[in-house]
User: Fold this.
Amino acid sequence: MKSQDLVAQAILARARAYAPYSGFKVGAALLGKSGAVYLGCNIENAAYSSTNCAERTAIFKAISEGERDFIAMAIVADTDQGCSPCGVCRQVLVEFFDDTVEIHLANLNGVIQSRTISQLLPGAFRPGDVQRNDRREL
Ligand code: THU
Assistant:
């Protein structure tokens, strides 16, 4: 799928954003290896920290539907450059993305900047870094 086509789907998802507090709408579209596309939007909450970003909405939908392997994600907002994912979303994406996954940062004016998760989150704490500890001493 072309990056422009995935961005077009992210723009459709953005229209469903629930963002009454910030007024900042974000859309995401995540292409799985199965061929399915998972859409996400930001979902805000009166208790602000309970907000879920568009990227996490999309990837949580995918994982909960059984998809674990991905080809690309598009993220779009009304920004000057491509919409840059927040730190929390980068950490969630690195759990499931390797550097074959293209992450298209887009705006509403046709800007598309393609990145890998290593570029967005260098030196990340990754799944393989978790050490299982024997906690008998506690
Ligand atoms: N937001 C996203 O959904 N994704 C991003 O990449 C940046 C931020 C949302 C969270 C909040 O609803 C609003 O944008 C303003 O931060």
About this structure: The chain has one domain: 3-129. The pocket of tetrahydrodeoxyuridine is lined by residues 19, 22, 24, 26, 42, 44, 51, 53-55, 75, 83, 85-86, 89 (CB under 6 Å).
